[in-house]
Write a structure and sequence with these properties.
The chain is an all-alpha fold. The chain contains 17 helices and no strands. It binds heme C (3 copies). One heme C binds next to α1, α2 and α3.
């Protein structure tokens, strides 16, 4: 026998053996195999649905973004609770109801697949798939703390705690409350004497732990551990010392709307990733959210107002607030993309209030 014939004979024998093996396995084996392939199909579908609908808040690896909770340990949660949370959402939080019967976009079967995927605990594969689909979320806004500023803070009384607080603050809070706690269009100032008189440490702890329902101020109890919360409370309570010492972080400058082709393309990419699920392909609208590719809306709404709506969301509706998660440049790029549609947008009567 030649080498090749010997190989073919071996393959034949193996195939017969495999066939016999399956026959011996019989009915229960086939059922198990079918159940296994159904399980794989559901995990695959659930992964894609997760990539399209959930990464913006829960992260590509289920790690949670900003104040949005991690889902990495969701496999340990009650199965019915998982299903209900995705179907019905959580009242007064960023977690919208995704079930079609609740005004969302996912069928019961699709939610079942997401549930099975969350239980399968395959986050490495999920992250790879999310990247493959080009849906990895951008970094959230963080203020920069120059090394010399940190050294100055550390030299203050209780400096180590203040420096730790400033780090937590820069990474998690500055996007809304401003680089130096001076406040922004999104959130009130945290560095004032008035606030320090009105709120003691216990009040601050309560606000940070529970958030302020119905506003952009989320609960941080899942995202920050007890030490981090303590540190940022110490910072807010002692901001006067930083002010007195003249310590300031560089302010993140708002840039005028960049309407370059790159910005518009970036805005379109973000829009496709985060907004089409509700506002429809190319912003033409859907049963659950109004058309944005709409002459009436675009001509009546200035750029600043569009950016404000995107950043702040619309309280009491499913329109999420993106401000804690997209940076100014991203929000400006989405606005530039929407503005680029104005010339060709159809005239649609204003949506009912
Ligand atoms: C706009 C942000 C946002 C999006 C998008 C989002 N979630 Fe959530 N999700 C939240 C928030 C906020 C909570 C916490 C709600 C609370 O405080 O009870 C949450 C909670 C959850 C929980 C409960 C976790 C727990 O520990 O109790 C699950 C499960 C969940 N989300 C799954 C999903 C799935 C699946 C999707 C996509 C279909 C999704 N979420 C999309 C913001 C979001
Ligand atoms: C996505 C934007 C956003 C982020 C990020 C954010 N906040 Fe807030 N925060 C708000 C808004 C909006 C309010 C006002 C809520 C209201 O109307 O009462 C607020 C209120 C507060 C208040 C009460 C202020 C007062 O005058 O009563 C405190 C304290 C606070 N935030 C601390 C924090 C801390 C600490 C962080 C970071 C760990 C943080 N916030 C992150 C938006 C945000
Ligand atoms: C979960 C569904 C959902 C997602 C995702 C969503 N929106 Fe919305 N959006 C809505 C709803 C619902 C409204 C209408 C709110 C109301 O009744 O005022 C809305 C309103 C708006 C408006 C105001 C429209 C008007 O006519 O006043 C803008 C602008 C907007 N969304 C932009 C965006 C952008 C940009 C994104 C992606 C970054 C996005 N939305 C993602 C549901 C959504």
């Amino acid at each position: 026998m030649t080498q090749q014939m010997r190989w073919l004979a071996l393959m034949g024998t193996l195939m017969i053996a495999a066939g016999l093996g399956l026959a011996v396995l019989g009915e229960p084996g086939r059922q198990a195999a079918a159940a296994e392939s159904l399980h794989i199909a559901m995990v695959t579908e659930g992964t894609d649905l997760y990539a399209q609908n959930c990464v913006a808040c829960h992260g590509a690896s289920g790690e949670g973004i900003a104040a949005y909770p991690a889902l990495m340990t969701a496999a340990d949660l009650d199965a019915q609770m998982l299903f209900n949370t995705v179907e019905r959402g959580r009242y007064n939080t960023g977690m919208a109801a995704f079930g079609v019967e609740e005004g969302g976009i996912l069928t019961g079967m699709q939610i079942e697949s997401i549930k099975v995927m969350l239980q399968a605990d395959t986050w490495d594969t999920v992250a790879v798939r999310v990247a493959e689909l080009g849906l990895t979320p951008p970094q959230i806004v963080a203020a920069e703390i120059p090394a010399e500023t940190l050294t100055l803070v550390e030299a203050l009384p209780d400096g180590a705690a203040l420096a730790a607080g400033l780090t937590v603050y820069a990474e998690n809070c500055a996007a809304c409350h401003g680089a130096n706690g001076e406040g922004s269009t999104l959130a009130p100032a945290l560095n004032t004497d008035e606030l320090r008189v009105r709120l003691n440490d216990a009040d601050l702890a309560r606000i940070i732990q529970t958030g302020v329902p119905g506003t952009l101020m989320a609960s941080w109890s899942g995202a920050l551990d007890a030490n981090q919360q303590q540190a940022v409370i110490a910072l807010i309570g002692n901001w006067g010392e930083l002010n007195t010492a003249g310590i300031r972080l560089p302010v993140i400058e708002a840039v005028p709307l960049d309407s370059s082709p790159q910005a518009i393309a970036n805005g379109q990419r973000l829009f496709n990733m985060l907004c089409t699920q509700c506002h429809g392909i190319d912003g033409y609208g859907s049963p659950i959210a109004p058309a944005l590719n709409n002459q009436t809306f675009l001509s009546q709404t200035p750029d600043a107002a569009i950016q404000q709506i995107i950043a702040g969301g619309v309280t009491g509706t499913t329109m999420p607030s993106w401000g804690g998660y997209l940076n100014d440049a991203d929000i400006a790029a989405i606005t530039a993309y929407l503005r680029s549609l104005e010339a060709t947008a159809p005239i649609i009567a204003p949506t009912q209030p």
